[in-house]
């Protein structure tokens, strides 16, 4: 069975919640498996994601329509490699609105691309409301909540239901300030640290290994879910529709 190529979109509704950190971890995790890979940093004013991976991550400005169309055309063209997007918090509404309006989900499905939103949660009521609205707007996209313990004290499962119960949550444990200072240094590589740091397991080793294990588990569950869906055959009746998107052909 042909596998869909994952398109990971790391999103949040507030700054400084660990969004770029999560995107970095994803890139490093995928690099370890030597798979075809590309990233996009959608914050041209502060492209921190691109600075860590200048050879892999492109900086894209979606402030205007040409920039938006260029990005989504690239995403379709990149259907042969895993993609990670670091979506600037101030651009989330614009990005997801365009995604819905142009029917990107339907075109992605035709091109064997699976959009997956890793949404960093917090306790603000408006964040839960925004998450619910996104899930309603993008019904063919998989949403996975992420709880960063360093920036949010608690996670309320009822406020952030995943698209699938078997892909329920990614948890980023809190790190000590000293260790956080280490991983935030320019040029720090999670993969290289795991491979080259002598002296046995450290706090950083355990922290990275735990998060990478969650990524592996998510990937496995997505693959198994696709296999089960294929074995069941085509669903009876129409797929969930998005009337506005259906009226607009993709480019």
Attribute tags:
251 residues; alpha/beta; seven-stranded parallel β-sheet; 7 strands; globular
Rg, Å, rounded: 18 Å
H/E element sequence: EHEHEHEHHEHEEHHHH
Helix content: 40-55%
Task: Give me the side-by-side strand order of the main sheet.
Answer: 3-2-4-1-5-6-7
Which structural class do you get from the secondary structure elements?
A: alpha/beta
Question: Termini separation (Å)?
Answer: 28 Å
Per DSSP E runs of 2 or more residues, the count of β-strands stands at: 7
Number of helices: 10
> How much strand?
15-25%
Shape: globular
Low-confidence stretches: 235-248
- Major sheet summary line: 7 strands, parallel
The residue-averaged pLDDT reads 88
Account of the 3D structure:
It is globular, with a radius of gyration of 18 Å. The chain is an alpha/beta fold. It starts with a strand and ends in a 5-residue tail after the last helix. The longest helix has 30 residues, at 203-232. It has helices at residues 19-32, 48-52, 65-77, 92-101, 104-110, 125-137, 177-183, 190-196, 203-232, 243-246; strands at 5-11, 37-41, 57-59, 82-86, 113-120, 142-148, 170-172. A seven-stranded parallel beta sheet has the order 3-2-4-1-5-6-7, sandwiched between helices.
In short:
This protein has helices at residues 19-32, 48-52, 65-77, 92-101, 104-110, 125-137, 177-183, 190-196, 203-232, 243-246; strands spanning 5-11, 37-41, 57-59, 82-86, 113-120, 142-148, 170-172.
Walk me through the topology.
Elements: E1 5-11, H1 19-32, E2 37-41, H2 48-52, E3 57-59, H3 65-77, E4 82-86, H4 92-101, H5 104-110, E5 113-120, H6 125-137, E6 142-148, E7 170-172, H7 177-183, H8 190-196, H9 203-232, H10 243-246
Parallel strand pairs: 1-4, 1-5, 2-3, 2-4, 5-6, 6-7
């Amino acid at each position: 069975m042909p596998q869909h190529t994952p398109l990971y979109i790391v999103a949040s509704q507030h700054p400084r919640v660990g969004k770029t950190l999560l995107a970095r971890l994803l890139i490093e995790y995928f690099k370890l498996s030597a798979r075809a890979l590309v990233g996009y940093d959608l914050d041209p004013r502060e492209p921190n994601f691109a600075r860590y991976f200048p050879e892999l991550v492109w900086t894209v400005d979606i402030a205007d329509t040409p920039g938006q169309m260029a990005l989504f055309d690239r995403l379709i063209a990149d259907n042969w490699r895993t993609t990670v997007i670091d979506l600037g918090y101030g651009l989330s509404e614009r990005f997801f609105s365009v995604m819905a309006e142009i029917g990107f989900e339907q075109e992605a499905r035709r091109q064997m691309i699976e959009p997956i939103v890793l949404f960093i949660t917090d306790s603000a009521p408006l964040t839960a409301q925004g998450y619910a609205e996104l899930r309603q707007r993008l019904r063919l996209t998989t949403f996975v909540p992420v709880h960063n313990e360093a920036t949010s004290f608690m996670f309320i499962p009822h406020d952030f239901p995943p698209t699938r119960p078997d892909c329920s949550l990614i948890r980023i444990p809190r790190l000590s300030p000293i260790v956080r200072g280490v991983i935030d240094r320019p040029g720090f590589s999670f993969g290289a640290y795991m491979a080259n740091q002598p002296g046995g397991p450290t706090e950083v080793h355990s922290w990275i290994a735990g998060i990478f294990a969650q990524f592996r588990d998510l990937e496995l569950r997505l693959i198994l879910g696709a296999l089960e869906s294929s074995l069941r055959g085509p669903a009876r009746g129409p797929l969930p529709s998005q009337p506005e998107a259906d009226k607009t052909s993709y480019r």
